[in-house]
Amino acid sequence: MSSNAPRQPPVRDLRFFLTVPHACSYLEQREATTLFLDPQERPGQGVYDALSLLGFRRSGRHLYRPHCEGCRACISVRIPVKDFCPNRSQRKLISRNEDLNVIERQASFDYEHYRLYSRYIRARHADGDMFPPSIEQYRTFLTLDQPYARLLEFRLGRRLVAVTAVDMLEHGLSAIYTFFDPAREFERRSLGTQAILKLVALAYRRELPHVYLGYWIRHCRKMEYKRNFQPLEYLNGRHWHRAISLENE
Fold first, then answer.
1. Distance in angstroms (rounded) separating the CA atoms of residues 35 and 33
2. What's the chain's Rg over C-alpha atoms?
3. CA-CA distances (angstroms) from residue 27 to 31, 32, 86, 132?
4. Residue 66 in 3-state DSSP?
5. Residue from 153, 222, 12 nearest 213 by CA
6. Along the 249 residues of the chain, how does pLDDT read in single tens digits?
7. Which of 5, 21, 158, 192 makes an SS bond possible with 31, Cβ 3.0 to 4.6 Å?
8. 72: closest CA among 216, 214, 175?
9. pTM of this prediction?
């Protein structure tokens, strides 16, 4: 059987580059270096799937992973979907958010999404490197014309309250980014946590084994929420292992 699809090169034949050292976004007084796939490459689904198993993440059109000399603080983590059991507070949260409608869309630009993103960044990350938000920054980061790149809208009635960017991999869902309404009236809904719970439920329905949460970093407060999803698996070299306690890894 012949196919008109372009042949994808094996991962070992792809070209990768290193960034120059730059200030680490997560650990103070540290420098970071990033390994990224040649931007001239146009990897298909198979290559992306293979790189994800090796700890690569996507940001816009770029596939990357940390590659810092003398530092291995960034640990890739994923949820094994069939073994995940929500804890008591997560079960309450699922019940509390039953009135939210979730709509799956292509990862294309929508001004309603951008307005929510802008409010979220200004309220929650005014001290970060994504401030101030801009339309061009948003487009570069979260829009992509690929069938695997999707956006999940969370709506309360007609009101947009959260958006999750997610990639549909052959072996799981990769959570790219979530932003939500920072208004105090939504605090009890813990919309960031709810988004991950929805991804686990979606992966289960589609019989996908994992939800990838990106990197976990010990002593980084922004990463603490990932430990609330148990059990977790972590990447060590080329192999994934079940974590008894990430603090001990």
1. 7
2. 18
3. 8, 9, 30, 21
4. strand
5. 222
6. 334 444 555 566 789 999 999 888 888 888 999 999 998 887 778 899 999 999 999 999 999 999 998 898 999 999 999 999 999 999 999 999 999 999 999 999 999 999 999 999 999 988 878 899 999 999 999 999 999 999 999 999 999 999 999 999 999 999 999 999 999 999 999 999 999 999 999 999 999 999 999 999 988 888 889 999 999 999 998 999 998 655 555
7. 21
8. 216
9. 0.91
Candidates 225, 145, 236; CA nearest to 192 is 225
Picking from 138, 78, 130, the residue whose alpha carbon sits closest to that of residue 112 is 138
Residue 220 to residue 73: CA distance in whole angstroms? 10
Sign of the C-alpha dihedral computed for residues 152, 156, 160 and 162 taken in this order: negative
- Rounded Cα distance, 152 and 166, in Å: 8
CB 85 within 8 A of CB 79: no
At 66, list the tokens. 């940390």
In the block, which residue shows the tokens 């999404």?
Answer: 113
CA distance 107 to 119: 19
The closest of 122, 146, 132, 120 to 60, measured between CA atoms, is 146
Q: Within 13 Å, how many C-alpha atoms sit on residue 22's CB side?
A: 10
Instruction: Write out the two tokens for 249.
Output: 């890894």
Distance, CA of 140 to CA of 217 (rounded, Å): 25
Give me the amino acid identity at 26.
Y
